[in-house]
Amino acid sequence: MTRTTRHRDTAKDKATVKALLENEGHTYAEDAGIKLRNTPQPLYQVLVAACLLSARIKASMATAAAHELFAAGMRDPRTMRDADWQQRVDALGKGHYRRYDERTATQLGDGAQLLLDRYGGDLRRLRDEADGDPDAIRRALREVPGLGPVGVEIFLREVQVLWPETGPLFDDKALKGAERLGLPTRPEELADLVPQAAYAVFAAALVRAALDRHVVEEVTAARP
């Protein structure tokens, strides 16, 4: 592996990345209608989206369900907790997130209560208590109901520009997409292909390449 990566065609890799970002240059948070900022409400909304995206369901349904939860007023831990279980189920169903809706509705309420109890509903306090240690951040996030290891990585992948100590983060799914596109499969090498500010967008685009062969075909056709 080391021998092959030393002789990569950098120009070809950059052309692939350019074509990929032109077609798929948006995060999953953006798809859910979240305007990402390092403030409590958008960080919580990304966490909710990560919980939904980590289930075995289409990403488009997960982001649609997150959008419906927020549209119904459940935009922060307090409003999520105060909504009743049926309101959460109804919002998830409106986004066609029906396979796991009842369990997820319960987990969202329990997770909101945990965040309020431990961090006053502010995920920045979780980060501060971890003192910038990515492993400690991950351990704390895994205590949130419904947010397993996959969901934690999705959350951190989406917020890595705001929380740079967690990046560059290209999770297993992103690395699979990189492999399908003929790009490097080491996070450090992928990070060299884009500015730090584009890590999350690039990672999300790579995930789409892993999930949808048409993305790979479109990038291949667009690449010089």
Descriptive overview:
Helices cover 66% and strands 0% of the residues. The chain has 15 helices and no strands. Helix 7 (85-94) crosses helix 8. It is globular and about 55 Å long. The model is unreliable at 1-5 (pLDDT under 50).
Structure, briefly:
This protein is mainly alpha-helical and 224 residues long.
- How many β-strand stretches? 0
Q: What is the helical fraction, as a range of percent?
A: 55-70%
Mean pLDDT: 93
| Percentage of residues in strands | under 5%
Major sheet summary line: none
Q: What are the secondary-structure elements, in order, as H or E?
A: HHHHHHHHHHHHHHH
End-to-end CA span: 26 Å
Unreliable stretches (pLDDT < 50, length at least 5) are: 1-5
Radius of gyration: 18 Å
- Indicate the overall shape: globular
Per DSSP, the total helix count is 15
Question: Which class of secondary structure composition applies to the elements?
Answer: mainly alpha
